[in-house]
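Reposting from the mailing list since nobody answered there.

I have sequence plus structure tokens for a pair of proteins and want to know whether others read the tokens the same way I do. The first protein:
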Amino acid sequence: MAANEVPSETPSEVRGEARGETRRRASRYVVPVAVAGVAAATIGLVPALAAAGDPDLPEITAQQLIEKIAGSETQTLSGTFRVSTDLGLPALGGLASGLGGQGGGASTADPAQKLTELVSGTHTLRLAADGPERQKLTLLDGSDEYSLIHNGDDVWGYDSKSNEVFHEKGASEGPAAEGKELPATPKELADEVLKAAGDTTSITVDGTARVAGRDAYQLVIKPKQTGSTVASVKIAVDAANGTPLKFTLSSVEGGKPVVDAGFTKVDFARPDASVFAFEAPKGAKVTEGAEEAGKSRELPENFEKDFGKEFGGFGGPGGLGKGLNVLGEGWTTIAKLDTGAPAPRTDEAPKELQGFLDSFGDKVTGTFGSGTLFKTKLVNALLTDDGKVYVGAVTKDALVEAANSGK
């Protein structure tokens, strides 16, 4: 064990376990298309550029640095950070409209719609926070801006390009509250990774860095297991207050990081209260969250019957086919689902979907039979021809081995 590696007696909070026709036809391809969504959810928000010249800081062990992060009392900050995401996915443009216009009636200011842009490419954001009750995130896109503001019981989303506003009252009880459970800052990203650390994980301190004008230690997290798609996670931690400043997730495939997220500028002073104030601009279209949620619950006619028929029990009394099983542990955990029905053929998919599915799907064979592997740089899924699905942040070989085992 390296001198600065976390011992096996890591505290439990750190060692915790990782935790119409077109529409009818399109419903058959929910599982493979959802791979992209799973990968996006795994990522959250992220990035920053470190300045040249590593600072000379006192030595610190990985255990001490983790405790510094856990003990950070940072409640206020404002700054700019950049998010770069590369899942290795084909272009998604036009896919939504190709699926019969699903989601087309949603407000462009709805966070669930707008923040999906962070799944790919590089984006610049401004962030402000004043404790758990007030946060503001602004996504910059040329002269256009999208702002998401949480102020007490109110959540506002504003899209300047369309001049649309999304508003939700009583956010602590609505969908916005669920959204707050997702990692939204480098610190939350770091917390999620650290919770997954255990005997399957190596955690070390690997030098120092200068990030957003701040001295920082570099915490490096790597799987000890083979078969994971994750090569490493690197977190730059503010040497003074323990706040994570940058988060980088690299894939075993190499190339650009899957996620590279960090502050380029940061200030820990309390932002002015006016930063979190919002009033809908004159002439803006305002959509209330409860109203939008009601629309999203309206399914196409015969959806449940068709979906259950096409996917062997999904949406029907049988629930998720024959059930969901979890195989393995740690970084090589695989979720297995038996749909109880033969897999759909991609050549029968709507033409808007065929190119997308074929571009990130490979035919594979094994003692289990044959199937299609849908791949990203982070999350992969194997859909066998007899209707079993294996999904995880693991390599192709690991998925095929799991299928061959017949578990």
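The second protein, same order (residues first, tokens after):
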Amino acid sequence: MNYNSLYKLVSTRQATIGVIGLGYVGLPLSILFSKKGFKVIGFDIDKKKIEQIDKRKSYIDRISSKEIAYILKKGFCTSDFSNVLKCDFIIICVPTPLKKNKPNLEYLKFTIKNIKNFLKPYQAIVLESTSYPGTTREMIGSLLDKKFNLGKNFYLGFSSERINPGFNENSINKIPKVVSGYSEKCLEIIKFFYKKSFKNIVPAKSLEMAEFSKLLENIYRSVNIGFVNEMKLVADKMGLDIFEILKLAKTKPFGFQAFEPGPGIGGHCIPIDPNYLHWRAKKFGIDTKFIKLSEKINLEVLKFIISKINFIKKNKNLRKNFNILILGLSYKKNVDDLRESASLKLIEYLNKKKINFQFSDPYVTKKIQTRSIDLSKKSLKLNKKNLKKFDITILMTDHDAFNYDLIYKNSNMIIDCRGRYSIDNKVIRA
């Protein structure tokens, strides 16, 4: 086995691809590689996921069970990391959460620990998990350099994932793919590999530039969402409707890109990723003020919603045991993704204050268990009778599946966090 052999395996689609972490990034990626003719071995420590895949069943709402079957045409999924020996390319897609507002790379460290004894010459590892600039070189490169001649008989790179949950899981190959390598030789083989599955490959000049670019993309959104949420607070104090203001601003064909205000931020990219760069920047003596300010504003939106609840309670003379209906639990519309959802943060508050509530979300069909919530309630079916039971209906996530006319006609008061309704004696903004 040599570099040319690996090149040939990719060229003839005989290379075996190991994908570690079969979540929101790893599963769509495994399906894509399988569709492109490669044998894929999927790895995950969650044995329930492996069982589901073996049964040809999907555990992510936007990915059909039919798509899962592609992986099993040539490959298989397992929790046994010794199968890394059979792989030519190893793609790491494990979670990178926060712990006390600092990067928590325990899943990446666990992965490296579990695969290091099964690595062999002329394999390639690509990190797709989002992390701070320097992670790939320092955490993976330093380990590989002790065992291999990195860049000559082993290849390392970073490639940022660009999956937009609910929109492009089944078309990720159409999104430009940023790739990078530990050395020119690493970049060459990694670029060639991704070209077999993605339409447009964008090479970065270094691992760190590629890692930084991913964080920059997400921080750009975080800062702009923070800005428009602050504008919402200002407009509300002036008695103005931010959504109507945005309609006017959007008519400018240059120099303006609209971001929508909402009930807070969710997912992984916006609440988590900016803190990775903030933490790293501190090591270089830089205090990234925009990152922390936007985070602060986006968290304050929850207080804004609570103030609206209290406003209605006071002005409508609600009974002591009033009822609230939360519309939408996922962090964005038309998906089942609850990661860092603003709705869950609102539920934490309602639980703490012992306020009665129920929720309706067509995408949430299972019991909800997070680090801070154990919710046994089921999603409420929306009909005339059920809607009238609630003193306040809060639109948190504007799923297209909701019947907005039905909701408006039969709700007593609506707190609209998404701009679906015009403001009147029944609707207020938050």
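Reply #1 (J.P.):
I read it the same way you do. Residues 207-237 form the longest helix (31 residues).
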